[in-house]
Write a structure and sequence with these properties.
Blueprint (H helix, E strand, L loop, with lengths): L17 E14 L2 E8 L2 E8 L4 H8 L6 E10 L12 E12 L16 H6 L1 H4 L3 H23 L3 E2 L17 E3 L7 E3 L5 H9 L4 E9 L11 E10 L3 H20 L9 E3 H8 L13 E2 L1 H4 L5 H4 L3 E7 L7 H11 L10 E5 L5 E3 L7 H10 L7 E7 L1 H18 L10 E5 L4 E4 L4 E4 L26 E6 L2 E8 L4 H10 L4 H15 L6 E7 H9 L29 H6 L8
Parallel strand pairs: 3-5, 6-9, 11-17
Antiparallel strand pairs: 1-2, 1-4, 2-3, 4-5, 7-8, 9-10, 10-22, 12-13, 13-16, 14-15, 14-16, 17-20, 18-19, 20-21, 21-22
Length: 583
């Protein structure tokens, strides 16, 4: 063995023991005839002391060590004179008697510290170095612990973990597929699974009534902080269940993990909110309910007053920012610039200040009397000292803009505390969404989602009004996961395909294997999938899932470390019968 102990386990009770440690040099400090070397491994940091008076040659060798050298140090554990309360090993040090350099190292391109001087691109290029940082390592340790506990919990509830194929058939009904050419079947392609959706339904047909899998999924879509081209789901399915059964089961899992990781007890059932209410009150199907500022609709109070911006708008909505009436013109201009950013797209921002002394100031004061503005404030329950912020325009678009403004104000006012957790279920999603460009309906979730039994009679007469038996778990404004009760009857599934514009031939070609399976007795079933990367990042208090993935891609979908994707040899292309066109 290269070591008798790790760099994080020795304590004062070990004083007097001779030990051998192995790890990386975190830093060296030379102070007169003494050189102090901090040696680090996955478990922690321990200080070793080299004394020139005891062994001059050994001291000189230690003084020449560089950062990230791999070393083996033998010595005696002693009580540390100058203790470091910030380290678990801060009460002891190793009085070194031997040093062996196992591997010299170049100077790293950034400091291996929690507060590193490396930028994102640099750290991703040298991700193997970034992973040595304690803060990054702790994220992966949390991920490991959560995966084990999730498996334990689901096993205790009778779930079986079953692996499903990675090379499958392309059925593009959601995001864009990653495709893989087949050498043995020239001109034909596999797809990487966006989820194991059809396979877990087939497992229900097979009688495996409780399935789960912590599984890789792939989607070829534009990236952002909470997306990666490959990501991990906690994928689950159950037979002989209704929506209530599924919600109760997986609410239990979420509560269990919060208790296990954060020691937080959620004793009350998670609130439930319909999709329609979420959009009406928050402009989002994943509302952040850690704070208030719910939307207030003002259209009926602003109509016919001669102000065209509001008169001609389909929707006029407002939020009230508490105790912000003292906002300066500069701050209000900053908010106006914020909502006018291209990614938000508002044309402007209106405001009303309800001053502490009872007076009112407003950017639209010349169009509305103080009495009218007070009526706005009464509807919104504004108090003296509050600031009302107002947007007007097309209903759906303006609500989304107001959502961004609400989140920005929540951040400015410190109301989005990452240490506070607010969980809820959003239910009753629309079954379909209409696409203006293609002039047809698409499945909001996927084509196997069951319509709400109360709305089945509307499938032909009012298709857009049909609600899905679908649900999302939302935590702090993040969609943690979602799912649905599935269609298990062939006739209803064929009806769904027809409404989505799929001919019988297309449906058979894409999903014939599933439809054929349903002929042999499919049980009622449903499930959901949690975003595992996102779950870990929420509990770690991080904004991006990239920080909880060992080897992530950047926002262009590139692996900076191995430089992928990359070109392949002409010989490989020929084997695959693929010819590239010149741009």
């Amino acid at each position: 063995m290269y070591r008798t102990n790790t760099c994080g386990e020795l304590r004062l009770s070990d004083a007097g023991r001779e030990v051998t440690l192995a790890g990386w040099v975190q830093r060296t400090r030379r102070m007169g005839g003494m050189t102090f070397v901090d040696i680090r491994d996955r478990y922690g940091i321990t200080q070793a002391v080299f004394d020139a008076d005891t062994d001059a040659a050994l001291h000189e060798a230690a003084a020449k060590l560089g950062r990230e050298y791999v070393v083996q140090i033998t010595g005696t554990v002693a009580e540390r004179t100058s203790k470091n309360a910030n380290l678990p090993t801060g009460d002891i040090e190793i009085i070194a008697s031997a040093l062996k350099v196992l591997n010299a190292a170049d100077t790293p391109p950034f400091t291996i510290e929690d507060n590193t001087d490396g930028g994102d691109d640099l750290r991703m290029k040298y991700r193997y170095l970034d992973l040595r940082r304690a803060c990054v390592r702790s994220n992966l340790e949390l991920r490991h612990r959560m995966a084990f506990e999730i498996r334990r919990y689901l096993d205790s509830k009778g779930f079986l973990e079953v692996e499903t194929p990675v090379l499958i058939k392309s059925t593009p009904e959601g995001a864009r597929d990653f495709v893989v050419p087949s050498r043995m079947n020239p001109g034909q392609f596999y797809a990487l699974p966006q989820s194991p959706q059809t396979f877990k339904q087939l497992l229900m047909v097979s009688g495996f009534d409780r399935y789960f899998q912590i599984v890789k999924c792939f989607r070829d879509e534009d990236l952002r902080a909470d997306r990666q081209p490959e990501f991990t789901q906690i994928d689950c399915e159950m037979s002989f269940v209704n929506q209530e059964d599924v919600l109760n089961m997986f609410e239990g899992l979420v509560k269990h993990i919060f208790k296990y990781v954060k020691d937080i007890d959620f004793t009350e059932p998670f609130p439930r909110m319909t999709w329609a209410d979420a959009m009406r009150l928050y402009g989002s199907d994943k509302p952040d309910t850690r704070f208030g500022m719910q939307f207030v609709e003002l259209k009926d109070l602003t109509a016919g007053c001669g102000f065209s911006v509001m008169d001609e708008a389909e929707y006029v909505g407002a939020i009230v920012a508490p105790a912000c009436a003292d906002y300066t013109r500069k701050q209000l201009d900053q908010l106006t610039d914020f909502v006018k950013r291209p990614q938000i797209g508002a044309k402007g921002l209106m405001w009303v200040k309800f001053e502490a002394d009872g007076s009112i100031k407003s950017s639209v004061g010349k169009f509305f009397s103080d009495e009218q503005l007070r009526a706005w404030g009464e509807r919104a329950a504004a108090n003296p000292g509050d600031l009302m912020l107002i947007l007007a325009g097309p209903a759906m678009k303006t609500r989304k803009q107001l959502c961004e403004l609400r989140l920005e104000m929540g951040s400015r006012l410190g109301l989005r505390d990452p240490k506070k957790f607010s969980c809820l279920w959003v239910v009753d999603f629309p079954l379909f969404e209409w696409d203006e460009e293609t002039q047809r309906f698409y499945a909001m979730h996927h084509p196997f989602t069951s319509p709400n039994p109360e709305d089945i009679h509307l499938l032909d007469s009012d298709t857009g009004a049909v609600r899905a038996t679908a649900y999302d778990m939302v935590v702090n404004g993040n969609e943690l996961g979602g799912g649905s009760i599935r269609i298990h009857e062939a006739e209803l599934q064929n009806k769904m395909f027809s409404l989505l514009g799929l001919s019988e031939e297309d449906a058979q070609y894409k999903f014939g294997f599933l439809m054929n399976a349903f002929k042999y007795g499919a049980p009622p079933h449903g499930g959901l999938a949690f975003g595992f990367d996102r779950f870990v990042s929420i509990l770690a208090g991080l904004d991006s899932i990239r920080d909880v993935i060992a080897f992530p891609k950047n926002n262009s979908g590139r692996d900076m470390m191995i430089d992928a994707p990359s070109q392949i040899d002409e010989e490989q292309l020929n084997e695959l019968k693929i010819k590239l066109e010149e741009e």
